[in-house]
Amino acid sequence: MGELFTFFGLISEGKDFLFLTHMVLSAVIALVLAKVAMSNLQLVPKGTQNLMEAYMNGVLEMGTDVMGRSHARKYVGLVATIGLFVGIANIIGIIPGFEAPSADLNMTLTLALSVFVYYNYLGIKTQGVIKYFKHFMGPVWWLAWLMFPVEIVSHFSRIISLSFRLFGNIKGDDMFLAVILMLVPWVMPLIPFALLTFGAFLQAFIFMMLTYVYIGGAVVVAEH
Q1: Angle CA 93–28–34, to nearest 5
Q2: I need a labelling partner for 168 at 20 to 30 A (CA). Which of 60, 87, 130, 223 fits?
Q3: Backbone angles phi, psi at 150, to 5 degrees
Q4: CA 118 to chain CA mean position, Å
Q5: Distance in angstroms (rounded) separating the CA atoms of residues 200 and 193
Q6: How many whole angstroms separate alpha carbon 197 and alpha carbon 11?
Q7: pLDDT by residue (tens digit) across 93-152?
């Protein structure tokens, strides 16, 4: 949002520069939080360790509901990392002087493609190529000619679902915030700020949930 002041804009107002710096900032914040939480581990957690343990337990419980506890534990690190990064990327856009990198399609599409490639890789690795793609043909052989292309389109549409949902919601929040700041530039209304914060966490939660669902569909389907 070039019409609004950003701290990094003092260096350069280029769109790509602002996107990259805010994305790197989000990643650095996530790494610092993880480092601080693990720097002085205690049996009775306090401060950042307590916060991060609560977050990890919440992500694990989310995955347990989707694919069972044993499978969820395997992928909790990946999903929690994605959620932390996306959540921070969403939140910093609410702070005046910063932009949300998740409001740029380059970031959301990259994350969506990464999840897409990874869960298909896991499915092929776990079940084998033939068995994995056999599930695309449906429950009865005589419908395979119809079900296979439908499943292929369905899987590729997940890239759009993951990327555009996050991008569209955060971009809309950024536009709403821009209007608020133009109307009342010196005072941030508490109600809109609370709504934007809730929306930022909600979008991170949805991205994590869908990641678990897609991975679960690829690796657990053989057991049903």
Answers
A1: 110
A2: 60
A3: -65, -45
A4: 14
A5: 11
A6: 27
A7: 888 889 999 999 999 999 999 999 999 999 999 989 999 988 888 778 788 888 999 999
Pick from 95, 110, 127: nearest CA to 218: 127
Q: Would the pTM count as exceeding 0.85?
A: yes
Per DSSP, what are the bridge partners of residue 97? 6
Angle value at C-alpha 167, between 183 and 157, nearest 5 degrees:
150
Q: Which residue has the tokens 């998740």?
A: 102
Q: How far is CA 194 from the centre of its chain?
A: 20
Q: How many CB atoms lie within 10 A of CB 21?
A: 20
DSSP bridge partners of 6: 97
Residues 138/73, Cβ–Cβ less than 8 Å: no
Residue type, 215: I
Supply the DSSP string of 69-93, one letter for each residue.
HHHHHHHHHHHHHHHHHHHHHHHTT
Residue 91 near residue 200, CB atoms below 8 Å: yes
Phi-psi region of 12 (alpha: psi -120 to 50; beta: other; left: phi over 0): beta
The values of phi and psi at residue 104, to 5°, are -110, 130
Query: What is the C-alpha R_g of the chain?
Result: 20
Structure-token match 């979008």, residue found: 203
Q: Enumerate residues 6+ apart whose C-beta is below 8 A from 78.
A: 118, 211
Q: Are 109 and 163 in contact (CB under 8 A)?
A: yes
